[in-house]
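Project standup — Tuesday

K.O.: blocked on the structure for the chain from last sprint. Re-posting the sequence here as requested.
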Amino acid sequence: MKKSIYFLALLINATAFGQGFLHTDGQKIVDAQGNNVLLRGLGLGGWMVQEGYMLQTASFAGPQHAIKQKIKELIGKKNTEAFYEAYLANGITKRDIDSLKAWGFNSVRLPMHYNLYTPPIEEEQNGGNTWLEKGFSMTDDLLEWCADNEMYLILDLHAAPGGQGHDANISDYDATKPSLWESEANKQKMIAFWEKMAERYKDHPWMGGYDIVNEPNWNFEGENPNGCDEKNNAPLRQLMVDITTAIRKIDTNHIIYIEGNCWGNNYNGIFPLWDDNMVISFHKYWNFNSTESIQQVLDYREKYNAPIWLGESGENSNVWFKDALTLMESHNIGWAFWPMKKVDNIAGVTSVTKTPEYETLLDYWQNGGKKPTVAFAQKTLMQLAENYKMENVTVKPDVIDAMFRQVQTFETKAYKDHSIPGLIYATDYDMGTQNYAYKDADYINYRVSTGEQGAWNKGRKMRNDGVDIQNSSDSKSNGFEVFDIQDDEWLLFTVKVKKSGTYAMDVRYASIEGMGQLHLKVDGFSSSESVLLPATEGATSYNTATLSGIDLKEGTHKVKVVFEKGGFNLNYLEFSMQ
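H.V.: unblocked you, prediction finished:
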């Protein structure tokens, strides 16, 4: 009752200020006044639906039911339930949504697992639908936090009853049970689920709409198991029409987002559209960021006079993020990136700490050996749940910068405040894109387009740029160092020189490949001789070389460290007045 009164008050307040409901107007998403709304969102992947790669279990347990079974085998049913209660409670809180707002996001996409709202058909009695308060309460809270921040919430059915795709990691599909497409009971439960959502949220102005089925990937007539060669997609279209009809009997206010087969991109047979408040969603990963890469959906927008939305993207380098979002915004396409939290992650806005104890569990699950005790495993998993709290994650400012500021400018920005005299860690180079903040030979991955897999940051540590970063074992460090340095690569640092004068620079490095070499440029001009870096006794054996005679003027400058010859690891630079 209290929640209903709160939602009613929000509706009255929003209507008074003319907010109204987000809706479509031809090829645009608009607010109540007809103003264009460019959705800049983040998907809360891994919260209601665990995916193995986010927890680093994918090689032995990809879908959530397999992950849960592994946990249950270690700590028992009761302890497993306690872990999931803590995991869900900590995974997303008001502090998370407040943070997203502060970083620049104006919307949230919620990937939902149906089993938080209703039991599977195998547990139902007499073919009815039982409703669970857990999922609805979590959604209510999230919507309240979004409303407090004037952000839109888009509901995404990520794991539909029975599973909507062969890619089980995404949909939690269990091949031992009937899928969504093989069970009329599952389809009816899915329709009833959306009726329930429509009834609950039909009057809420900050509900951004209903993404009715995420990434269906199923073969109906074709040979490709993920539906990529389907020509008709008749069962998918019919189910989406049926869901839309059910929603519209209750809720005529909110946008309905649809997705094609083949992970959301095969729209053969789906058109024409059957509703006038509908958005065509597509997903984009790993391919080139050219107009040609999105031409098909641009054509859909024009032909069917409906908005298009990049409902999911991410999992690449900062350069790819910047280029992808620049492309989207130049075509007035809103977006929702993926995901918010993963374990030991560089390619998202946050990273969840992986403890040595959790590494022990992963090793046992992967390789066997001595089984951890219940007490050890339980403590480890509860600590993992604790690490998911917003106050405990590591925020990735370089990723956020790439998604927002870098879309607007090529200017670089200091990653940390650097003063001269003083010490500057190599990994604290400026935030910015390739050829502006740094130059690296491998800085992006176009895996789908080129067929080649590879890392941009080969060490996958600390930052998500092309610069290769690994852990450092030096006695004095910030824990990381730049490695795999190649000829003609460089790093840029914004520095504040406290006093004009001539300085010396100590270069802390390690090398086993022979003679490295670097020099400095200040504000685009060469300002030093080169310093040679003789080979050390190994990649973890560090030496210091000194470059003298560097003339610097008081004030803020851009200092570029140019690697004339690579083959060494760089820990830090330390400037002192001569």
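K.O.: great, moving the ticket to review. The first helix runs from residue 2 to 16. The two ends are 72 Å apart (CA to CA).
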